[in-house]
Design goal:
single chain; alpha+beta; two-stranded parallel sheet; two-stranded antiparallel sheet; 4 strands
């Protein structure tokens, strides 16, 4: 069975602006999620970062992560649900 590791990292946090790339122990927060997924992945598994955050996209590219899409604006608002973000990613991979 293939596993999809989905990291959601929306830009625009009101509580802590730029939190995805804020550093904790000299490492951006989103990098902890990326490294956790990579550590647990098996051959054939997929890692997807669903984000509209250009800084998170740039970091992922620097870490040699394939970025299949940028999260649509409609799924990047304060009112977008996690369910819709997850289904967007699942639907993308089902079509592949």
């Amino acid at each position: 069975m293939k596993i999809l590791y989905l990291i959601t990292a929306r830009a625009g946090s009101k509580g802590l602006p730029g939190k995805n790339i804020k550093k904790l122990n000299n490492k951006p927060l989103v990098q902890y999620s990326i490294e956790f997924a990579q550590k647990n992945m098996n051959t054939g598994d997929e890692l997807c970062i669903s984000t509209d955050d250009e800084n998170s996209l740039s970091l992922a590219r620097d870490l040699k992560i394939h970025i299949p899409f940028k999260r649509p604006e409609i799924l990047s608002s304060d009112t977008a649900s996690s369910y819709d973000v997850i289904m967007h990613a699942v639907n993308y991979y089902e079509k592949q």
